[in-house]
Design goal:
Blueprint (H helix, E strand, L loop, with lengths): L1 H21 L22 E13 L2 E4 L11 E3 L3 E16 L3 E12 L2 E5 L9 E6 L1 E13 L3 E19 L4 E23 L2 E12 L2 E6 L1 E2 L5 E7 L3 E12 L14
Antiparallel strand pairs: 1-4, 1-15, 2-3, 2-14, 4-5, 5-8, 6-7, 7-9, 8-9, 9-10, 10-11, 10-13, 11-15, 12-14
Length: 262
């Protein structure tokens, strides 16, 4: 019995081995799944929106000559200026390497930054001086870093322009008005978040530098045609604004925001 069992087992082994040798070779191992390592470019696209906030500055007035508003050359004073800023912006983002963003932005705002000073000189306590900026135009490049897909921290640098006006009125009715468009540079930082899908909310700070300038005009009022010269220095301006934007991009509309998506 044992001999017959051993013989049957040996025969089965020989048959199985022969069948495997005659059959097709084994197939390749199953592929290994690899997870995608780069998130989608959720911040790529064109955006537009509005911003509102405040601006402030500490300009200086200096009178280089003895004229209607200054009895001694070099008289000066330094008021503090501040006011509301409200405008709009349009820009473009490009996201690459998963978390880096570059882009450009154009902005324009009505500017109510102003400073009114009364009687800065002892000899004319009723004289009035006013400086105001009526707008703010900016063109800047932006570069940023995305984290958690929903937040963008960015810096910006570029060009800025503002129309600055100065007015003076003496107690005797002498008036003067001059204006200059000041051109300079800006540098800023900001943080934006996706609130709902492609609706963005952000906060931004900018420091804007303008060169010193001389404002010249002829007086009016009770003494028409007289010379008026005022050197306005330290025209640097700072702004802090809240921003609300809509992003239009290939993957912007349906992504998750802080408050969900639509």
């Amino acid at each position: 019995m044992h001999i017959r069992a051993l013989a049957a087992a040996a025969a089965a082994l020989v048959i199985t081995t022969a069948a495997q040798a005659d059959g097709p070779p084994p197939g390749p191992p199953p592929p290994v799944a690899v997870a995608c390592c780069e998130p989608p470019a959720l911040w790529t696209g064109v955006y537009l929106g509005t911003h509102i906030g405040a601006g402030w500055s500490d300009p200086t007035w200096s009178f280089p000559f003895a004229e209607s508003f200054s009895t001694v050359p070099g008289q000066n004073f330094s008021p503090s200026a501040g006011g509301l800023i409200w405008g709009g912006h349009v820009g473009i983002n490009y996201q690459f390497h998963g978390f880096l963003v570059v882009g450009a932005e154009l902005g324009y705002a009505g500017n109510r930054l102003a400073a009114t000073t009364g009687g800065p000189f002892a000899g004319a306590p009723l004289d009035q001086f006013r400086l105001e900026a009526s707008d703010l135009f900016t063109v800047a490049g932006r570069f940023g870093y995305v984290f958690h897909d929903q937040y963008l921290f960015y810096g910006k640098v570029g060009y800025a322009s503002s129309l600055v006006e100065v007015n003076a009125l003496s107690a005797t009715g002498v008036a003067a008005h001059a204006q200059e468009r000041e051109n300079g540079w800006l540098i800023g930082v900001g943080l934006e978040s996706r609130i709902i899908s492609n609706i963005l909310f952000g906060l931004e700070y900018n420091y804007i530098g303008f060169s010193d300038d001389r404002f010249t005009a002829l007086t009016g009022g009770t003494v028409p045609g007289g010379p008026f010269n005022a050197d306005i220095g330290n025209q640097h301006m700072q702004t802090f604004v809240a921003r609300l934007s809509i992003l239009f991009g290939p993957q912007a509309c349906c992504s998750e925001g802080v408050l969900g998506k639509y």
